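Summary for the steering committee. The consortium agreed at its last meeting that each partner would contribute one worked example illustrating the joint modelling workflow. Our contribution is presented below. We chose a case with several input lines so that the handling of multiple components could be demonstrated. No manual editing was applied between input and output; the record is shown as generated.
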Amino acid sequence: MKKTRIAPLSLRPASADLGESNEKLSDRKLTELGTRRAFTGGALILTRSPESSATLTLGRRELLRAGLGGAAGLVAGLAGDGPRAFASQEVVGNGKRTPHHRIIDVHNHPRWVGYNGARIIEDMNAAGIERTWLLSWEIPEREIDPSYYATLNPTGVGIPFRDVIDVAERYPDRFIPGTTMDPRDPHACQRLKAAVDIHRVRVFGEFKLRMRYDDPDAIRLFHYCGELGLPVIFHLDVTFPRMGVPSDWQWWYGGGLENMEAPLRLCPQTQFLGHAPGFWREISADADHESEAYPAGKPVVGRGRLLDYLGKYPNLNCDLSAGSGLTALTRNLDFTRKFLIDYQDRMFFGRDDFNNKLYDLLVSLNLPPAVLAKILAGNALRLVPVKDPQA
Ligand SMILES: [Zn+2]
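What follows is the complete predicted structure of the assembly.
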């Protein structure tokens, strides 16, 4: 994709004195200020993080006067075909764009892939993400696929709830804590309730265990999540050959989508968000014969099991995060645009990493604004309401 450069903001001419190029200055300054950008009605509002008071409002004229190189393109983005034009421009430096929507990332983790709490906040600021559902991955060590050791925090096993608490407590206005309990623990429900009461947990996720999710103890815990009002984010990885004898030791989680039918039926109060390769492969009707975990670029054939279940179970939703979500959504863009519109109340923006690929794809699809707004934040705010920081 052709890169368009935007001259960075120079907040105070004086700052140029520090001998830093405007570019470096504005990025450092922005990060320092922990700015959140929001576009409302053509005005650009930079709000500083709570500990600092000043608020700067720059209308279109001020932007131009401030001599932003790419101002014209930016304003065009504001005035014209907003999201798409805007998305085609790029803030210099970390290359992240600043959208003008409310964005909630429903799927991310603390202290992994090189990101600690402060770096996640920096990244969220640059990407214009208002809040993140910060999830643990609580799992017995013997069930962890060893390839994860290179990216996980070596001070614990998996992604401990402890790390979620530490990071969420530091930035309570930016993170919504999520965790899980092991259904095989007889005290799982009590411990979950305590996590809600003590640590304000509002999401049950990321649930990723080497057990079939229609296990009676798992169903009991999912049912309790519904009583507590916690949406459940579940991760599926299947074995190969599908529906056959696994060819070797494989790191599977959950079984297959078919093992979610009982939980969906028996826990109608619980909202489930499906995620990961074992979930997204079911977008196509040939999934049982597909030998690849990530069937990138393959056509979407017929009506997959996922669409059947979305039709049957109103409490099934889709977590669009990670490579698996992106792989599924880029198989056939016409199919994807219709899929996102048809199920617009069931699609949730998430990243499970620190990049803008999904955002760029969603904006490039030129979805109806109301649909895009639901996917980026509206649906997440319906399940886990939070105050609008701009209100
Ligand atoms: Zn995850």
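The two ends are 35 Å apart (CA to CA). Residues 107, 109, 206, 352 surround zinc ion (CB under 6 Å).
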